[in-house]
Design brief:
InterPro entries: AB_hydrolase_fold, LYPA1-2/EST-like, PLipase/COase/thioEstase. By secondary structure, the protein is α/β, with parallel strands linked by helices.
Length: 251
């Protein structure tokens, strides 16, 4: 499996954690990294500002054929026939999702090795289709992560038990039990006015992962569209990271 190309925001303090952040369909790692840095709290601080010891890694998805547009190729983690309804011709999602999850697992191994094998120091995050890919990476991960964060996301192949959901991609190196899933904290944020990934999609992510045994924190905002909520979303994400990843529960 070839290593994905990445864009990096390096830590400005001694490196303690890594966040791997996946862009949405049609976007690029470079543009998404730039947009991410514009996501600010009420004091105009980005997450990179708030967590200077974090290495922020933005992988670039492959250019994949888009079945709905013959001859077209686009930056996407997996193909989708109808972005408003992932259930329609959902079999189109399998090949790309399988390849993307496998590639993210390779990237995970690399970042974990940078942190001396400490899986709990690595967080997976994704926006939109990136969030969908992150969710499936978690359920196929060999060990528990520090956490996952899903923004404006969707859940491919929902409504199945964990074992059956894993069987959809049929990846190797997947644990037989659910301990990694149950012990990885999850944050799901979604804006109620999102016109591309409806609020029901975010709730489906929440409910699916909760049914797998995840500890999910759900944060819903009235406005923000198909994007991060600002400034409240960044402040809530920072609080969640401190509580569940950096374990600053009593500070």
């Amino acid at each position: 499996m070839a290593m994905l190309s990445t864009c990096i925001i390096p830590p400005t303090a001694p490196h303690t954690h890594t966040v791997i952040f996946l862009h949405g369909r049609g976007d690029s790692a470079k543009k998404f990294m730039s947009s991410f840095q514009e996501w600010r709290d009420s004091e105009s601080r980005s997450l990179a500002d708030l967590f200077p010891s974090v290495r922020w890694v933005f992988p670039q998805s492959e250019l994949r054929a888009a079945a709905k547009f013959p001859g077209a190729r686009m930056s996407q983690w997996f193909d989708t026939w109808n972005i408003a309804n992932l259930h329609e011709k959902q079999e189109l999602q399998i090949e790309g999702l399988k390849e993307s999850v496998s590639s993210i697992k390779v990237l995970l191994d690399t970042e974990v090795n940078r942190l001396d094998g400490q899986w709990e120091k690595v967080v997976l995050a994704g926006l939109s289709q990136g969030g969908a890919t992150v969710a499936h990476t978690l359920i196929n991960a060999p060990k528990a992560l520090g956490g996952i964060m899903v923004f404006s996301g969707r859940m491919p192949f929902p409504g199945r038990p964990l074992a059956e959901t894993r069987m959809v991609l049929g990846l190797t190196g997947v644990p037989d039990d659910d301990s990694a899933v149950r012990t990885t904290p999850v944050l799901v944020q979604h804006c109620a006015d999102d016109p591309l990934s409806r609020i029901q999609n975010g709730r489906e992510v929440r409910d699916s992962l909760s049914n797998f045994g995840c500890e999910v924190e759900w944060q819903e905002y009235p406005t923000g569209g198909h994007w991060f909520h600002s400034p409240g979303g960044v402040e809530d994400a920072a609080r969640w990271l401190r509580a569940h990843v950096f374990e600053e529960k009593h500070t």
